[in-house]
Amino acid sequence: MNIAIIFAGGTGQRFSNDNLPKQFVEVFGKPIIVHTLEIFQKHNEIDKIYISILPEYFEYMEKLTSNFNLTKVAQIVRGGATAQNSIYNALKAAEKENPADSIVLIHDGVRPILDKEVISDNIKDVKAFGNSITCTPCYETILISETGENPKEIPYRRNTYAAQAPQGFYLKEIIKAHEKIQEKNPNYIDMIDACTIYNTLGKTTHMTKGNFGNIKVTTPRDLYILEALLKYRTEEENALQ
Known about the structure:
38% of the residues lie in helices and 20% in strands.
């Protein structure tokens, strides 16, 4: 089984929207999360989708999956105290219904510009290397600083990459990694994503080439970028038909 785990449990504190969390803001007539889910719904290698959502938006998410005919959604689960708690809840829900050697692709609900080839490449790389971390090269110089005032280290730009999503693993292995982290760090402090969890545990990760434009909608400014990217993608798809 190839399973998508979609995390949409954020409150959007940096988004400055008093009405809705960012994943539910509509762009071209659809909530951002629906744009994201449709990528996996339409992909012929994805068998099931599990969504981790803010508890107070559980029923709303159910309506969206029905209204937009998202038939691959196997279950919607209520999120936890942190992003990683929420993802763990979805992983455990998937564990109850699927083989332990299923491949899971963990993806942000607010990353709706994802090429289908990247999904396929992640699945292929999990089979070949045991995991996959979607990455793109950095085109700006990265500074490492503990003070926020003076750089401690400036790695050569040619050696720097941005980790994105999806991030792929075997179901049993990523659950095991979560549970090892929980033993020492139950609140997942500084565990920003699955890549960080694996690195903290000393596990080797494999980089999978991502697509540019795979932005994570975080601020209101990102909406303008998203609208332009969605418009371009729609025009591109129409031209190919």
